[in-house]
Amino acid sequence: MKNLRVFLFCDMQKTSLEELYQNYILGNQTVCTDTRKLVKGSMFFALKGEKFDANTFADNALAQGCRFAVVDDKKYANKPNIILVENTLSALQQLANYHRRKFSIPFLGITGSNGKTTNKELINAVLSKKWNVLATTGNLNNHIGVPLTLLELRVEHEFAIIEMGANHQGEINSLCQIAEPDFGLITNIGKAHLEGFGGIEGVKKGKSELYRYLKQKGAKTFINGDDETLLQLACENDKITYGCNKLYDLIGKDISNSDTVSFKYTTRYGNKDWSTVRPINTKIIGGYNFINCLAAVCVGNYFKVEPELIQVAIEDYLPNMNRSQLVKTKKNTLILDAYNANPNSMKVAIENFAKFKSESKLVLLGDMFELGVYSSEEHQKLLDLLWENNLKNAILVGSEFYKLKDSHYLKFKTTLECKEYLKNNVVAGTTVLIKGSRGMKMEILQEAL
User: Fold this and answer.
1) How far is CA 236 from CA 128, 131, 174, 231, 295, in A?
2) What is the largest CA-CA distance in the chain?
3) If I label 48, which of 110, 257, 289, 324 is the partner at 20 to 30 A Cα–Cα?
């Protein structure tokens, strides 16, 4: 055991962190946390979860080709290339922050109740026309995903976009301490993760931790000037503004006349004759995505991406990962927005779908999760909203919808039950909205449509 290296990360000595960092460099600057997805020569971090303890996989990780394994249980630290730390998660986070500090490039932090990933993808598309950008993959936006993203930084990167998710207060601040963003953007504040945040006021306090961090750092925030809630929360921040209603740094005009978003934009000192401004015609459905496009244009404009390249990036962007996807099957047209859901995103999706030009429509809604004591009330509001918008052809899926007293709509307890029904009751020639929380896996319904 004389070769065993011990790092006490709660009382870290600089040399200890530097030594871990040197081992990260020797491990091809690659970190793994899942033995099912190991990379030869990498550094394996044995993280713990509610139902697993990856310390037990340290030997297995080395046997599969990892150069180092990091553990926090000394009984598994039985080889020279197994590094013992007090807490593997803290070690991962501190290593990521140490690596981040090697870079002087712009770091943009993005959070919000809805649209985080869409904003991140659009901004990445725009900035990548000019810069070499590292952006969060998928939605690796939590206390593990953010460090893993930061550890993907390489010398060739010229910009970093870090998506930050949270389901309780204090989490965004913690992620800011790890990623240390120089710029920030909050998409909106809505009724997401109400259970963890303790209501809408808790959501405001939690999400605006990004504003407070940026203010303390003297950093800038990109902000939708038309959103009074965001303006109030960022009243003392250094702002770069976008919106439609005032003379912002970037001013947009929604000219959509079809199911996809079209818009024009100008700048504070630019051309104000809208008739001569060139339109941007996207492949993105949903009027609610107009402001997301405008945010991406604002960021791109600030970082000197040429207007022609901004236009190409926005017009070429195609939604993916079950987010506002337009899917054509042999029988139907699907609006697949099933990656996640909360009361706000459900509301705008329903209202937008009500405006769709289609003779036959069907709505498939799955339960919303993490609403706590607000769950029944918020699910009932959606039923009322469907009826108010004359969307009377709808199927509701999940235990929360199922227990509501409503005779207007067909209901199923599980997504699989709904899928079987759709297989036996063919839907054809219909435009179908599919939306629900991630755990409902509503995307499997497209197999029956």
Assistant:
1) 31, 30, 21, 9, 20
2) 76
3) 110
Residues 6+ apart with CB under 8 A from 55: 46, 48, 71, 72, 73, 76, 88
Residue 184, H or E segment: strand 183-186
Q: For 309-438, where are the E strands, in sequence order? A: 325-328, 333-337, 361-366, 394-397, 410-412, 431-435
Picking from 307, 302, 320, the residue whose alpha carbon sits closest to that of residue 280 is 307
388 vs 225: CA distance, rounded Å: 30
pLDDT of residue 8: 47
Query: For residues 116 and 124, is the Cβ–Cβ distance under 8 A?
Result: no
In 3D, which of 268, 199, 204 has the Cα closest to residue 239? 268
Per-residue pLDDT tens digits for 80-137: 899 999 899 999 999 999 999 999 999 999 999 888 999 999 999 999 999 999 999 9
DSSP reduced 3-state for 443: helix
Handedness of CA 387, 389, 394, 400 (dihedral sign): negative
What lies within 8 Å, CB to CB, of 220 at 6+ separation is 182, 183, 184, 214, 237, 238, 239, 240
Beta carbons of 260 and 281 less than 8 angstroms apart: yes
